[in-house]
Design goal:
Helix content: over 70%
Number of helices: 5
Number of strands: 0
Shape: rod-shaped
Largest sheet: none
Radius of gyration: 25 Å
Strand content: under 5%
Distance between the termini: 31 Å
Structural class: mainly alpha
Order of helices and strands: HHHHH
Length: 131
C-alpha cells in the first residue's frame, strides 16, 4: 500500500472503509476468470478454444518440422521443411496474439472496475447530507 492509498483509507469513514476493502483489488487468477464474465463471455470462450486448437496445431506442425528436417530423405525437400516451420511459427504467433488480447481484456476489466468504484463513491457522497 503506497502513501496515497493510506491517505484515502484514512479519509474514509468506517462504512466506506469496509466497502472499500470489500471491493479490494483482484489477484491475477480472479482477473483471468473475470474475462469469462460479462458481455464478452462467449467471445472469450471461443477464443480460448481457438487458442488451444492453434497450440495443438503448432505442436503438430513443429513435430512434423522436426521429423522432416532431421530425416531429410530424398522425398523430403527443404521447401516442405520450411512449410512446416512456417506453419509452426504462424500458429505460435496466433497463440501469442490471443494471449495479448486476454491480458488487454483483463486490464480493461480492471480499469472498468476502478471507474465503477469511483462512480459509486461519488454517488454515495452525493446522497449524504451536507453538514
Amino acid at each position: 500500500m503506497n502513501d496515497l492509498d493510506r491517505q484515502i483509507e484514512e479519509a474514509l469513514d468506517a462504512e466506506d472503509r469496509q466497502f472499500h476493502q470489500q471491493l479490494g483489488e483482484q489477484n491475477v487468477f480472479e482477473q483471468a476468470l473475470s474475462v469469462y464474465q460479462g458481455k464478452f463471455r462467449t467471445i472469450a470462450v471461443l477464443a480460448s478454444l481457438a487458442m488451444f486448437a492453434m497450440f495443438g496445431g503448432a505442436v503438430f506442425a513443429g513435430w512434423k518440422f522436426v521429423q522432416v528436417s532431421s530425416g531429410m530423405q530424398a522425398s523430403a525437400s527443404i521447401s516442405e521443411a520450411l512449410a512446416w516451420g512456417g506453419l509452426t511459427w504462424f500458429f505460435m504467433m496466433a497463440v501469442g496474439f490471443m494471449k495479448v488480447w486476454f491480458w488487454m481484456r483483463m486490464e480493461s476489466n480492471r480499469v472498468l472496475r476502478e471507474i465503477k468504484r469511483v462512480e459509486l463513491q461519488v454517488a454515495r457522497l452525493q446522497s449524504k447530507p451536507i453538514a
